[in-house]
Amino acid sequence: MKIKTTSSLLLFPTLLLAGCRATTPSPTETKAIDWTKHHLTIGGKKDINPEKPTADNIADGKDLFTSYCMVCHGLDGQNTGVPFATVVSPPIPSLASADVQAYTDGQLKWIIENGISPSGMPPSKGDFSTREIWHMVLYIRHLPKTGSLGTPAIYAGAAK
Ligand code: HEC
């Protein structure tokens, strides 16, 4: 009995120290955050996109994306010309990346509606109709080649 108490008392400060480490997340921790986002935090997994990937629907999604989301994601959804994309924490991911493309259409819609907290990804619920959000999801599935649309006009002057 006595021995047990002593050893748990010794263990306690060790755990406390381990818990208070203020370091950047290790690759394993980042993986765990990704897994949690993909499986738990982000809703809408089973929602099916009712909008067909026709040229018109994709073009509508592109129009919306390139007028609103481009401030942070670039015209191509791959951060082209966005000066702060890699500086912010978490950095703005390329929407063409395998990680983002691994979301279901329903999860992408959920992300657009609810945003991701705590990060710079804002919620858009109320700004767009449901149909418009599905069209943006279609655009995210059909992104153009990296850099092919150039730099958003708002940054063009500053780009070097
Ligand atoms: C003010 C900047 C900003 C705007 C505007 C913005 N986003 Fe984001 N977005 C972010 C940031 C920052 C992240 C990274 C969030 C994270 O990983 O936690 C992100 C992530 C995402 C992701 C990927 C989520 C993930 O888990 O990797 C998608 C999809 C996305 N945004 C779509 C959009 C769409 C569509 C719009 C326009 C309706 C938009 N965003 C507008 C900043 C923005």
Q: Could you tell me the mean pLDDT?
A: 85
Which distinct ligands sit in these coordinates? heme C
* Helix content percent band: 40-55%
Give the H and E element order. HHHHHHH
Number of individual domains: 1
CATH H level: which superfamily? Cytochrome c-like domain
Number of strands: 0
Inertia-based shape: globular
Describe the structure.
The protein is mainly α. Helix 3 (55-73) packs across helix 6 (130-141) and helix 5 (105-114) packs across helix 6 (130-141). The termini are far apart. The longest helix is centred in the middle third of the chain and has 19 residues, at 55-73. The radius of gyration is 21 Å and the shape is globular. Helices cover 51% and strands 0% of the residues. Residues 4-9 and 11-21 have low confidence and may be disordered. The chain has seven helices and no strands. The structure holds heme C.
In short:
This protein has helices at about 1-20, 25-40, 55-75, 100, 105-115, 130-140, 155.
Please specify the SSE layout and strand pairing.
Elements: H1 2-19, H2 27-41, H3 55-73, H4 98-101, H5 105-114, H6 130-141, H7 153-156
Helix pairs in contact: 3-6, 5-6
The structure holds heme C (HEC).
